[in-house]
Amino acid sequence: MEANFSNERILVCVYYGPNGERLIRRGCQIANMLKAPLYILTVDLAPFDELDAEKVIYIEQWKKFAESHPSAQFIIKDNEKRPVAKVIAEVARQNHITQIILGQTAQSRWEQITKGSIIHALLHEIPFVDLHIISVSRYIRDEEGLFEKGIRAYLVKSGTEYCLTFSHTKDIEYEGIFFKEVGTDFDNGIFRFMNGWETRQVQVTDGIIRDLKNMDLNKIDLNNTD
């Protein structure tokens, strides 16, 4: 007998950092396979208007992804004082979710915030929902504290190069986050931005980007989420 997947509904829970895109892509694959609607959820303790630039740009990217897919919907629960598991369970019940995708790294971060196991709490709150815990490798590392906290920045094209700027103008080509190297008076570091639905990281030297080729940053973690 062929299984009927018409009632399946997928919820992807994302936390800030590069792994959110991977989780969303995994959720999209499952949703497409099951012909199911996809929901993307993030939860934050702070009100939205108090979030820093780095968090806001991730949220904007997730919103754009949902808007570009007719079966996807983005949900943000900000200014939340309840345990994260209770918020996830509430959203799951309201949207009749049957499967939840949660990243291992995000789970670790949320468990630090809530002082408890999200998995155990979700199993108690919504025992009939399937949980998928995705092991996600961090591909940007900063164990030595080489970079300052990311700030919103923009790229303006100048000939064959791009200039880094912190002011929004009509000439900007890309918007993203700039991670400045610690201990330098110059704008040296890494610029992260979205190219289509791909997250890219490029080298910045004295405020100039000479090549938009994606850097291999497996040995650097600007989002140490353990």
Please tell me about this protein's structure.
- With 226 residues, this protein is of the alpha/beta class.
- The protein is built from five helices and eleven strands.
- Strands 10-9-8-6-7-11 form a six-stranded antiparallel beta sheet, with helices on one face.
- β8 and β9 form a beta hairpin.
- α3 (84-94) packs parallel to α5 (118-125).
- Mean pLDDT is 79; it is low at 1-5, 136-144 and 217-226.
Number of helices: 5
Number of strands: 11
CATH superfamily of the largest domain: HUPs
- Radius of gyration, in Å, reads 19 Å
> What is the makeup of the main sheet?
6 strands, antiparallel
Q: Label the overall shape.
A: elongated
Question: What is the level 1 CATH name of the largest domain?
Answer: Alpha Beta
Distance N terminus to C terminus? 44 Å
Number of domains: 2
Helix amount, in percent? 25-40%
Strand order of the largest sheet: 10-9-8-6-7-11
Which segments are poorly predicted (pLDDT under 50) over 5 or more consecutive residues?
A: 1-5, 136-144, 217-226
Mean pLDDT score: 79
InterPro entries: Histidine_kinase_KdpD, Rossmann-like_a/b/a_fold, UspA
GO molecular function: phosphorelay sensor kinase activity
Protein name: UspA domain-containing protein
GO cellular component, one term: plasma membrane
